[in-house]
Design brief:
The chain is α/β, with parallel strands linked by helices. Helix content is 37%, strand content 12%. The protein contains six helices and six strands, in the order H-E-E-H-E-E-H-H-E-H-H-E.
């Protein structure tokens, strides 16, 4: 499959999310570092997921270069991608309706989720995720002393 297709990035994100899940890791996302697009899919792999308001962004997939791709091939890839993402979201315990929201926004127009939406779509596993993460005892002990360089920040569940 050509690397210019969005499928490759999303497939890797889902693979990373499944690895996060298999290792029993917690995902934590602060507003200070961006987690959008493919990162948002990997974030869903956390056995516990904590995120601050506006820290998770979604949008629909796009092609960066459509030269040499027939309309039929493009439609086929997007349909496969959509089905795979819906299945992954469901497997991670989130609501596949999240994808419906994401499909409403162009890739250049990220849609950052409000706490109520994170709870509604089960992006976070704790309804109080909108609270300051550093003030929550269970999360505070897992936060690093310095901000992470990449997102999502993952820690093994129960580890300190």
């Amino acid at each position: 499959m050509p690397s210019r297709l969005p499928y490759a990035h999303r497939a890797f994100s889902c693979h990373l999310g499944r690895l996060i899940r298999s290792e029993g890791l917690v995902t934590i996302q602060s507003r200070g570092s961006e987690c959008s697009s493919a990162c948002a899919l990997a974030f869903l792999g956390g056995v516990q997921r904590f995120a601050q308001s506006g820290s998770i962004g979604v949008h629909r997939s796009s092609f960066s270069d459509t030269r040499g791709i027939s309309v039929d091939d493009a439609v086929s890839h997007i349909q496969r991608l959509t089905a795979d993402i819906m299945a992954y979201i469901s497997q991670m315990g989130a609501d596949p309706a999240l994808l419906q929201l994401a499909l409403q926004y162009d890739s250049g127009d990220l849609r950052y989720l409000f706490p109520s939406e994170m709870a509604q779509f089960r992006v976070t596993t704790d309804s109080s995720s909108s609270a300051d993460l550093a003030e929550r005892p269970a999360v505070a002990e897992q936060l690093p002393a310095t901000p992470p360089l990449a997102s999502p920040l993952c820690r093994r569940a129960g580890a300190s």
